Amino acid sequence: MTAQVAKSGPAPTTATDASARHAQAVAHHKAGRRVEAARIYDAMVADDPGDPRGWFGLGVVAAQDGRPADAIVHFERAIAAGGLRAEHHHNLAGCKTALGRLAEAETHYREALRLNPGYCEAYFNYAQSRAFSTDGSPWAEAVETRLKTPGLARTDRRFLHFAAGKFWHDAGAPDRAWPHYQAGNALHDGGFDRDAWTQQGERTLAAIDRALLSRLAGHGHDDAGLVFVVGMPRSGTSLIEQMLASHRRVTGLGERADIHAIAEALAQRTGRPHPDYVAQLTPALAKGFGAAYARTLRAAAPDAPVIVDKHPLNFRHVGLIRALLPRARIVWARRDPLDTCLSCFQQNFRSGQDYSFDLDDLALVYAWHERLMRHWTSVAGPVHRVDYDQLVADPEATARALAGFIGVNWDPQMLAFHTTDRAVHTASRWQVRQPLYTSSAGRARRYARHLGPLVDALTRHGVAVKVPAP
Questions:
Q1: Given a cut of 70, is residue 183 above it in pLDDT?
Q2: Helix crossing, 452-460 with 337-345: angle to 10°?
Q3: A Pfam family for this UniProt protein (predicted)?
Q4: Which residues of 227-258 are buried (b: 16+ CB within 10 A; e: fewer)?
Q5: How far is 371 from 355, CA to CA, in rounded Å?
Q6: Domains of the chain by range and CATH?
Q7: Which residues pair with 445 in a beta bridge?
Q8: Where are the alpha helices (DSSP H) in 301-451?
Q9: What mean pLDDT is predicted for residues 442-449?
Q10: What is the pLDDT of residues 406-430, one digit of tens each?
Q11: Mean of the pLDDT values across residues 16-24?
């Protein structure tokens, strides 16, 4: 769910009335100045608690800041003040989904669509919010009817195709779902540079080797309570984090961008791009950046003995993590290549995953993920590998091994992860609220007749593939 800022006209230079102040707040908000926007929204509700615009703005700020509980309060105040707009219910539904309040979220998604039957993003987010095994077909047909609307924007068509794909998938009709996934992915406007990804991967293998890590060994920041869960998106990273965060001594902080920011800071400081800056990574720099990272996470969870950072794409940075935080625990989530790539192709990722909209790009990135993780396992271990199929087949054994690896005693609550009360913002926010199910294992079998190009691409990039029977 992407919280939406209310639309407004151009902001005046001075606010002379409530509408003008709102326009200024929206202008700040759209420019990324959320603190300034929030100050104006606060002033608006202080002067007139009955103005829904201020409450809605505060809700959007809170949602974007990762505070869904606060956002819910603000959105509900907006609705109580007479803000009966589809956007209010849509944003409220997204926050309640993040907190696992799924039945309430469904009510708000339906209300958003009642208020605005042409709300394409609401169809998409509603489709992701639960399983539609018994009522997927009528929802898919409704979306297909909406797709016939003349003049739909590309973004709205993409939302609708991914929604229809999900509804048909849940209804057990993969042959009807697949064309929608193909059409939705084809409407993606971003680009992916295969050559740049490949060159960076090759330079990483050459630059961050055993000799470099031996030179820096023991010089980073000493904190054994930091856990990184890495792997391809849709490989089980959210499930693993949810299991770990269900332990009484563990806090999960979701997908953190801190390591990527450190990589960028090192590139800027040394004047050399990633990963070439590691040649100038001194023991003092490693310790300083490692300590800064640890301080940030410890401030976010001051009472947690163990903290989990589960940004999947940190698989690119395991060597850097080992240099900065030599006692950090690295967990690699690995899932069947076809299941992983198919699941990515079925997601309308908002940002950061431009490779996921093309099957050949997906195969290339999956192959590099495996190549890098084999390298890190060799030179930057220990790395604890969790195979998704084994996790769903024997969750207790997998969870016990995880607990032992991160240095905590066994806690049976790890198996009741779906009851854990915490915000989840990833594409797996619905799945982690359900008891463990096995239907996602072997997902590719249902789409076997459509996956020949993906099988060929993975094979061409050196990935061993078990081809499912059609």
A1: yes
A2: 120
A3: Sulfotransfer_3
A4: bbbbbbbbbbbbbbbbbbbbbebbbbbbbbeb
A5: 17
A6: 1-116 (1.25.40.10), 121-187 (no CATH), 194-460 (3.40.50.300)
A7: none
A8: 318-324, 337-345, 359-379, 388-393, 395-406
A9: 90
A10: 999 999 999 987 776 645 545 444 4
A11: 86
Collapse the DSSP code of 226 into the 3-class scheme (helix H, G, I; strand E, B; otherwise coil) and give the result.
strand
Q: Give burial (CB, 10 Å; 0-12/13-18/19+) of 305.
A: middle
CB neighbour list of residue 189: distance below 8 Å, 6 or more residues apart: 154
Give residue 88's pLDDT.
93
Nearest residue to 306 (alpha-carbon basis) of 426, 165, 197, 411: 411
Share the mean pLDDT of the chain: 90
- Single-letter amino acid code for the residue at 117: P
Q: By CB neighbour count within 10 A (0-12 exposed, 13-18 middle, 19+ buried), where does 298 fall?
A: middle
> What is the spatial distance between Cα 294 and Cα 288, in angstroms, rounded to a whole number?
10
Q: What is the pLDDT of residue 13?
A: 39
Residue type at 275 in one-letter notation? P
Q: Name the pTM for this structure.
A: 0.87
| Nearest one of 308, 317, 328, 322 to 417, comparing CA atoms | 308
* Amino acid 433: pLDDT: 47
Q: Are 443 and 466 in contact (CB under 8 A)?
A: no
CB atoms within 10 A of CB 270: 15
DSSP 317: S
Angle between helix axes 359-379 and 337-345 (nearest 10 degrees) is 130
Q: Which amino acid, 223?
A: D
Tens-digit pLDDT profile for residues 297-339: 999 999 999 999 999 999 999 999 999 999 999 999 999 999 9
Residue given tokens 């200024």 in the structure block: 24
**Residue 197 burial by Cβ neighbours in a 10 Å radius (0-12, 13-18, 19+):** middle
- Confidence grade of residue 431 (pLDDT, cut at 50, 70, 90): low
CA distances from 222 to 244, 257, 286 (A): 21, 21, 11
Judge whether residue 291 has pLDDT over 60: yes
331 pairs with which residues across the strands? 229, 384
DSSP 146-165: HHTSTT--HHHHHHHHHHHH
Rg (C-alpha) for the chain, rounded Å, is 23
Rounded to a whole number of angstroms, the distance between the first and last alpha carbons of the chain is 34
Tell me if 412 sits within 8 A of 246, measured CB to CB.
no
Which tokens go with 278?
């590691």
pLDDT category at 347 given cuts 50, 70, 90 is very high
In terms of DSSP bridges, do strands 226-231 and 306-309 run parallel, antiparallel, or are they unpaired? parallel
